[in-house]
User: What shape does this take?
Amino acid sequence: MGIVVLFVYVDDIVITGLTNTTSVDTPTELNVKYRRDEGELVEDPTIYRKLVGSLIYLTITRLDISYVVHTVSKFMQAPRHLHLSVVRRLIRYILGTPSCGLFFLTGSSLQLQAYSDAN
Assistant: This one.
């Protein structure tokens, strides 16, 4: 995936999730616990599911949003308005930080190596 494709993908998420908004400095509020039964259910959960699904895909190159995306993905079965507001805040964060993340250029000789110790 080239850099241009990634920016277009982020723009598509922003257009789907929000229009005419400002960015924020952090992907989520600090020290907030989200619950499954807090608030009213979202009328159309398909929008929530599409946005979260797109954000899951984006975590491949945006490691800074992984925790928040994992948190909101737990509520896919029955999303609430509070959960949708967290997704919208996350999109606002992405809007303000479009150049953050890992970029893998096509044709690059980059070789990724990772090690793990299971103990």
